[in-house]
Specification:
- The chain is mainly α.
- It is built from ten helices and no strands.
- It is globular and about 65 Å long.
- The termini are far apart.
């Protein structure tokens, strides 16, 4: 079981991710979307959606730093283990709480708005369960080992995760990891495997070009500002 969970399952999840993305792009390109339900309700969505997206972004950044920035790097810049633990505990808990609040608001919106609820699919429900489970388990694991310097996952989980990219998973590193962290890791891998088959697929087509594109210039159609619209020839004048 140890060899499967920490030496096989990560690659199965990655294979599902890549194969699913290729399949989705090839055969369901028009379904590659978040399937926005804003047309049914926008007031609560305009609050819940930014809360969730900013929260999950902070969670992802925190995981990238925790798993792929070695302890020697932070020590080299003067950040000791105690300071790193406090920053990870406070920042990670705040990001997780923000994400959970966004998910809770989105689920409440779907459950209380009839048109939005009817547009909710079975894989949407599965996605919410695994996403919420991954976030909550991560928070619980962090808080359960918050005393002192906490659990130093940078000596076990982080080296294991980096060993996966070297195609030589060091499964022995995960044998002594607390159960909560292990369950969190397994649920996270399952969530990664499910991404291409849910609305989460839209994260791979995020409109990052919006950060550098020119401003959109809008022109008013108020006749008091533009004057009366002149007559146009052809079918426009004929009202066609």
């Amino acid at each position: 079981m140890t060899a499967f969970l920490w030496g096989v399952l990560p690659y199965l999840a990655f294979l599902s991710l890549v194969a699913g993305l290729v399949w989705r792009h090839r055969y369901d390109r028009f379904g590659w979307t978040s399937r926005s339900s804003q047309v049914y309700e926008s007031k609560l969505l305009n609050i819940a959606s930014p809360v969730f997206h900013y929260g999950i972004l902070f969670v992802l950044v925190g995981h990238l730093i925790g798993l792929f920035v070695p302890e020697s790097w932070t020590s080299a810049v003067g950040v000791n283990e105690r300071a790193y633990h406090l920053f990870s505990l406070i920042g990670g808990t705040a990001a997780g709480a923000l994400t959970v609040a966004g998910i809770a608001a989105l689920v409440y919106r779907r459950r209380t708005n009839a048109p939005v609820f009817k547009a909710t699919t079975a894989n949407d429900k599965v996605m919410y369960v695994f996403l919420l489970a991954a976030i909550v388990l991560g928070m619980v694991a962090k808080l359960a080992h918050s005393t002192g310097t906490g659990y130093d996952y940078r000596t076990t989980i982080a080296p294991w995760s980096r060993s996966l990219f070297r195609l030589g998973p060091d499964t022995a590193l995960m044998t002594g990891v607390p159960v909560l962290y292990q369950v969190h890791a397994v649920v996270g891998m399952v969530l990664i495997a499910l991404v291409p088959y849910t609305r989460l697929v839209h994260m791979f087509s995020a409109p990052v070009q919006y950060l550098v594109r020119p401003y959109v210039v809008y022109r008013s159609r108020d006749p008091r500002r533009l004057g009366p619209r002149p007559d146009r020839p052809g079918w426009e004048r004929a009202g066609l």
